[in-house]
Amino acid sequence: MNLSQNQMALALRVPARRINEIVHGKRRITADTALRLARYFNMSPRFWLGLQMDYDLDVAEDEVGEQLNREVVALGSERSKQ
């Protein structure tokens, strides 16, 4: 599928800037955008929100993953019993 950001923005009736910022990871996929994408591509809005959630978790893991490993002890682990 050869679809430009501008073509998608026009089809979804959103500003082209919104699509550009989503593509470049500078803006989240909101419920409104997920509904529009779902309607356009004949898919579930949960699919689009799920992609956003997966991305958010990956970013958070990169940012605070090691810190969490040091600070938060998993319930039932050997470290939690000490």
Automatic annotation (TrEMBL):
Kindly list any coiled-coil regions of this protein.
Answer: none
Any one Gene Ontology MF annotation carried by this entry is: DNA binding
UniProt xrefs under Pfam families: HTH_3 (PF01381)
User: What's the domain of life for this entry?
Assistant: Bacteria
The answer, when asked if DNA-binding is one of the entry's keywords, is: yes
InterPro entries membership:
Cro/C1-type_HTH, Lambda_DNA-bd_dom_sf, Toxin_antidote_HigA
The keyword Ribosomal protein appears for this protein: no
User: Where does the HTH cro/C1-type domain lie?
Assistant: 2-48
Keywords from UniProt, A to Z, are: DNA-binding
Record NCBIfam families: antidote_HigA
Name by which UniProt lists this protein? Plasmid maintenance system antidote protein, putative
- What organism is this sequence from? Acaryochloris marina (strain MBIC 11017)
